[in-house]
């Protein structure tokens, strides 16, 4: 059995789609998978069982990337095509069954939208795949227990909680629970620049470097007692890794993109959804949310 799964370009959306893939892995134990995703999400699927191939969809002018994908897949007869991008490419492929996400905003969590694509309620929760080498690398970077993951970056400045508040929260959680900080962020100079003020103010923090592959990041997050971070792909990856995850939200669609999973929580700055400035979120409120999450988990 051959399954084509067209996932998302952005990391956070791709992470949320892994719940569907995990369901399909269990529902069709003989199936082989081809994954389609954007460049930033490529490594997310590197350790996925029974993955034959990952096709990286790089955007081109005039949507020619979809034509390139069609050319890549047209020679295969697929048993199932799942398209969470809603591209409609599978209408032009030989496939026995297709499930295509419809466009447009809908109320409710994104994981629920994805679950409805295959008629699943409650929806399957996201997962993260790692191997023994990833876990050994993470153990070498973070020996022992009691680590606090801080993720002070995001894909736009409106989502970024001020660096001094991350620092104050880290000090408070360190004093109260003995948690030691590790700062996690993505690759590239922009991500490092956002993380730099937190690293400078916490000289004892571990700098994850922004150079780890996504399965290594997932293994590192799984070793942490708590994750606190902005609305980002790393927040979703942390929740998928099973780490107690506290997402910090300002002008984001929290009703759709709150972290998903049994050990996930979020806190929102005061104000209307989608317009609340994140600097309205106080350290004391984030600290209490972290306490509540640690108590629950």
CATH class of the largest domain: Alpha Beta
What is the mean pLDDT? Answer: 96
Q: Report the end-to-end length measured between terminal Cα atoms.
A: 39 Å
Shape: globular
Unreliable runs: none
Report the β-strand fraction as a percent range. Answer: 15-25%
Major sheet: size, sense and barrel closure?
6 strands, parallel
- How many discrete structural domains? 2
CATH homologous superfamily of the largest domain, by name? Glycogen Phosphorylase B
Number of strands: 13
Order of strands side by side in the largest beta sheet? 10-9-8-11-12-13
Q: Do you know the CATH topology of the largest domain?
A: Rossmann fold
Assigned CATH architecture of the largest domain = 3-Layer(aba) Sandwich
SS-based class: alpha/beta
- Count up the helices: 10
Fraction of residues in H or I helices: 25-40%
- The Cα radius of gyration reads 19 Å
Order of helices and strands: EHEEHEEEEHHEHEHEHEHEHEH
Pfam families: Glyco_transf_9
EC number: 2.4.-.-
Organism: Nguyenibacter vanlangensis
InterPro entries: Glyco_trans_9, LPS_LOS_Heptosyltrfase
